[in-house]
Specification:
Elements (H helix, E strand, L loop, with lengths): L4 H6 L4 H11 L3 H21 L4 H10 L8 H4 L4 H11 L3 H12 L3 H25 L4 H9 L5 H4 L49 H6 L2 H26 L39 E6 L2 E6 L3 H11 L1 H4 L11 E2 L18 H13 L4 E7 L6 H24 L3 E6 L13 H4 L4 E7 L1
Helix pairs in contact: 2-3, 3-7, 3-8, 3-9, 4-6, 4-8, 6-8, 7-8, 15-16
Length: 433
């Protein structure tokens, strides 16, 4: 099975970056997520369709050492590598792509344009890094990109197609193996645009014999399929909030020895999913940026209540865990954090320094996919990484332990989508004695 490049890139475009982008651009997190979901396969598709373009291969080769991945939000729009790629991939279709994504996701054209640069930067940087790590030359990069053609159209979210993005009818053609969204015709024959009139014209004998029926035989089922897909997508959208944020409440999320976890829930045990925005959280007169009811807010409230000081021993504390809202690792990595993670680690350091008597334990978790032994090792390594980062910040003596639980407390079915399984991939902290 060929490598799915999009899976690699998603590690750069996690919840923390979506939240930051929404705040920076003044858009909703759901709008940002929808836009990225449409842009990512479009950009990868553009690369796949230009896998032999010298300028594209040069840009990707240079991206690995350009620092693009470290400044996706701050420097993507003005980066010459990204500008070169966008021009090579989309040409005069660039404006149409931006308009389509803006309309689909409900964000402004300016925001859609900024996200296009961001996604292009994440894509070029990730592919460039993968090529450098695996010693791929330009020929290897070209082969890797070409291998993506067969999956691009299947990865577009409901409501989007190559044609709807205004890129399905490029003169050079989006010749993807599974592209059922664009109508393909032999070279030299006129293309039929399904959004225009299909009334037969002229005296073509073949067309007159069918009376237009040959067109409607495929057009009606296609339109029906699009309508059903749109209805299902809208119904699913109503049942979800813009962002799923997992936060442990005062009832606790799990015990160290329990076989099941009760993750952020209300009194009925139903998972709470709410859209949140950063606010000022008071830490003894110092404002920390965090969610109201999020990790920082709950930890500070608990410490100020005196419950930690009055806890007789560790058994009185081990049932209550607080999930990091922003700290996320890149895919398969235990040493590289996603953009936007550092801020919450700094908040935790500030809390520990304000309450020097407090001690904590770090926990790492994975979803149910993959080998469990590897999951435990990965989650343990990630917890140790957080512990090490806190030690470097001067609060190492307050971190008693770092433990990896693998998928022990995961709840989402391994066959669920990656976005759904993301709730099980997390880092948490609890107070300890």
């Amino acid at each position: 099975m060929s490598l799915n490049v999009i899976d690699l890139i998603k590690g750069q475009l996690g919840p923390a970056l979506v939240s930051q982008a929404a705040s920076q651009l003044g858009e909703s997190e759901s709008g940002i997520s929808k836009a990225i979901g449409g842009l990512l396969p479009a950009v990868v598709g553009g690369l796949a369709n230009n896998a032999d373009h010298p300028g594209v291969l040069d840009a990707i080769t240079n991206a690995s050492s350009s620092g693009i991945l470290g400044n996706l939000l701050g420097g993507s729009s003005n980066n010459p590598i990204i500008s070169t790629l966008l021009s090579s991939l989309f040409g005069d279709k660039l404006g149409g792509l931006v308009n389509s994504i803006a309309s689909f996701s409900g964000i402004s054209n300016g925001s859609a344009s900024s996200l296009l640069s961001l996604v292009t930067g994440a894509t070029a940087g990730t592919v460039g890094k993968y090529a450098a790590d695996n010693n791929l030359d330009k020929s290897g990069i070209s082969s890797l990109l070409s291998s993506q053609k067969g999956i691009i159209s299947t990865l577009l979210p409901a409501g989007l197609s190559l044609a709807s993005l205004n890129i399905g009818d490029w003169a050079k053609g989006y010749k993807f193996d599974n592209d059922n969204d664009a109508i393909k015709t032999p070279v030299g024959e006129p293309k039929i645009d399904v959004t225009r009139s299909t009334t037969p014209t002229g005296t073509n004998p073949d067309r007159n014999n069918e009376g237009g029926g040959s067109i409607w035989k495929w057009l009606l089922p296609l339109l029906l399929l699009i309508a059903v897909s749109y209805f299902i997508w809208k119904q699913c959208e109503k049942k979800q909030t813009t962002t799923t944020t997992t936060v442990a409440d005062s009832t606790g999320s799990h015990t160290d020895t329990a076989s099941t976890a009760v993750t952020p829930s209300d009194t009925t045990g139903t998972a709470v999913t709410t859209a949140k925005t950063d606010e000022n959280i008071d830490l003894n007169g110092v404002a920390l940026k965090g969610y109201k009811g999020g990790m920082e807010d709950q930890m500070i409230t608990f410490l100020k209540s005196g419950n930690y000081k009055n806890a007789a021993d560790d058994s009185a504390l081990k049932d209550t865990w607080y999930d990091f809202d922003h700290v996320n690792f890149k895919v398969a990595s235990a040493t590289e954090l996603e953009a936007g993670s550092q801020g919450q680690l700094e908040n935790l350091v500030a809390i520990l320094k304000a309450f020097p008597e407090a001690k904590i334990k770090i926990g790492g978790y994975t979803d149910k996919t993959g080998n469990e032994a590897s999951n435990i090792k990965l989650s343990k390594s990630r917890a140790e990484f957080i512990k090490g980062a806190l030690a470097k910040a001067g609060v190492g003596a307050q971190v008693l332990e770092a433990e990896g639980y693998g998928s022990k407390f995961a709840k989402v079915d391994p066959k669920a989508s990656d976005a759904e399984r993301a709730a099980d991939r997390k880092m948490s902290v609890r107070f300890a004695k």
